[in-house]
Amino acid sequence: MRTRRISTATAFAVLFSSVVLVGGAASPAAADSSRILPATSLGDIVADGVHQRVFISDPQSGQILATDYSGKVVRVLGELPGVNGLELSADSGTLYAGVASSDYIVAIDTATLTESARYDIGLGTRPTHPALAGGKLWFGYGAAAEGNIGSLDLSGEEPVVTLDQDPDRTWYSAPVLASSPGAPGTLAAGIEGQSPSELAVYDVASGSAERTAYLRADASNLRDIAVSPDGAQLVVASGAPYFHQVYRTSDLRAEQGYTSDAYPNAVDIAPNGTVAAGIDGSYDPDVYIYPKGGSKTVPVREYELPSTGMSSGSDLLEPAGLAWAPDGSRLFAVSVNSEGVRSFRVLTDPTKSVAGLSVSAPATATRGKALTVKGSIKASVALPAGTPLTVTRTDVESPKGKSLGTVKTDAKGAFTFTDTPPVGGKVTYRVAYAGSATHTAASGSAAVTVSRAAVSLKLNRNKSLHAYNKNVSFTATLGKTYKNRVVELWADPFGADKPKKLVKKAKVNSKGNLSVTVNMKRDTTVTAVFAGDGRYAPKSVKSTAYAKVSVSTKLSKHYKTAKIGKTSYAYYSKKKNPVFTTSMTYYKGRAQRLSLELYYNGKWYDAGQQYFALGSNGKSVVTLTGPHETGYKMRVRSSYVNSSSGDTVNSTTHGAWKYFIFTK
């Protein structure tokens, strides 16, 4: 049955809008989901299966949040100071809530999400946790040293409030109550935070509360209680001992408990008897699921909440922060992180044991020879021998997978099968379990590198040097293969601004050749790629060809041109400064090197060199200033020097020498 809230958790008030992390919906969710919850505390949580709503009370903010099954807030009902416990009517038409700070119980129409009635319980009564039993709405009430149980009879024309229903005055403060439709005359109660814990059971079939069992339990810091659907058992979550205790409601005699872990703080029981047991555990699973009639020592499923705050441990389950969807398809939980931010969590497939499937295979194998694949499937609830698993093989010739049929497990969940891979390369064996009503689906895979023969692939033009802007043909030659005769040719010009590009992809000709023409404006790496096939391994080869730049030097300001011997010279008056204009293929940041040489005694001597930046138009204009000596032959040229000119996208290129002489 529905979990009952024991304490009002308080934390730093941080409000967040609802943001979907993983979506949920009214239909069965595909995976666990979470939303930030705009709440500063948690009082109680209850799920309405008819309208597919979840109601969450927030005592600190004085409001009830109504969400859909994904946790999206659809309505906020405010002005409910200290609102705590929640109870849903049998037909899910009305939600009752104890509003302690205003001394009343409020009724909310679940269809319209509006308040339909308020019932004044009495000044200073502070009603907390309502519970329906014996045809009445019962509630715990009272401040410190004034705890008791009261009832609200709504069967007549006017509501009737009756206080002091526990003549034994069992409770120091307002107790939390729990009931079950399967035992309409039974009401259970406990008191929060007390050590040792106190529990009591009442027979309320007559309209009055008759205490039939009482226990000062060997436990401390009780946080939550729930009654089983048949009313026979009471499950208790106390900070200690470190398991969820179980008692018979007939006499509160202890029975086998649910061995969860340290600091139990929440419990809820689905209508089919499945128990959700929660703990306050930073480094352990937070929620444990036990099906009716199953083991109480081995949960069918565990949930570990993630960490969304600054703590190294997981977010913490809020006390009494669990509620089942009535059909058992989902379990709702409220958690809080180290920053005080609360999350609404939808835990899916809660009654299914999580299956884990492992597969192992040899790392390498020989094509055409049999290999063995092994594995196992395990779950907290063991799968029966003979469980069928589907096997699929994926390889280069069957990229979408080829079914190899099924394999069955043995009594320990192990399986084995053999296969002879027909092709080489990466071969993946995937084994899958489809899942069932009791187990989640699972799959695993293992990859094998199956041998393939080496292929011959060649590419010409490596280390060749070409003039700027020349069209150069590159030819790849592919040797013997099995089925694939396709080669890719990629061109990668030097420089980050020119990405690698596929320039041709086609079958080679009858001689195994495939050619492409590349315009050489930069040094370029051409790569030939063979993707491989079922019997021959992939291969790629590279050829790096080099391209010069376009460079020329023009002399100006001379007064004539004439030959000295066979060489043409520009003649300059010694009073005139020559102007050298260089034109060069432009690249960002590029500079040209201007070199001067002087002819003396039958030999050319270096007269100096210097780098000058190119303009964006590829021009560089340099003036040679005086004084100028007459009668000496001189020459000048412009060069691009790989790296030294500011980049490395072309090969070193020297322009032609230009000759000049100074006269009087």
What is the general shape?
elongated
CATH class of the largest domain: Mainly Beta
Secondary structural class: mainly beta
Proportion of residues in helical segments:
under 10%
Low-confidence stretches: 1-30
> How far from one another are the termini?
116 Å
Radius of gyration: 43 Å
Number of strands: 57
CATH architecture designation of the largest domain: 7 Propeller
Identify the CATH homologous superfamily of the largest domain: YVTN repeat-like/Quinoprotein amine dehydrogenase
What name does CATH use for the topology of the largest domain? Methylamine Dehydrogenase, Chain H
| Total discrete domains | 4
Task: Summarize this entry quickly.
Keywords: Signal. This protein has 664 residues and is mainly beta.
Task: Produce the secondary structure layout.
Elements: E1 4-5, E2 9-10, E3 33-37, E4 41-42, E5 45-48, E6 53-58, E7 63-68, E8 73-77, E9 83-88, E10 94-99, E11 104-109, E12 114-120, E13 130-133, E14 136-141, E15 148-153, E16 160-162, E17 176-179, E18 186-190, E19 198-203, E20 210-216, E21 220-227, E22 233-240, E23 244-248, E24 254-258, E25 264-269, E26 275-279, E27 287-290, E28 301-303, E29 316-324, E30 330-336, E31 342-348, E32 356-360, E33 364-365, E34 371-378, E35 388-395, E36 398-408, E37 414-419, E38 425-433, E39 442-450, E40 457-459, E41 465-466, E42 470-478, E43 486-493, E44 501-507, E45 513-520, E46 524-530, E47 539-547, E48 551-556, E49 560-564, E50 567-573, E51 579-584, E52 591-600, E53 603-613, E54 619-623, E55 633-640, E56 653-654, E57 658-663
Parallel strand pairs: 33-39, 41-47, 50-57
Antiparallel strand pairs: 1-21, 2-4, 3-31, 5-6, 6-7, 7-8, 9-10, 10-11, 11-12, 13-14, 14-15, 15-16, 17-18, 18-19, 19-20, 21-22, 22-23, 23-24, 25-26, 26-27, 27-28, 29-30, 30-31, 32-34, 34-37, 35-36, 35-38, 38-39, 40-42, 42-45, 43-44, 43-46, 46-47, 48-51, 49-50, 51-54, 52-53, 52-55, 55-56, 55-57
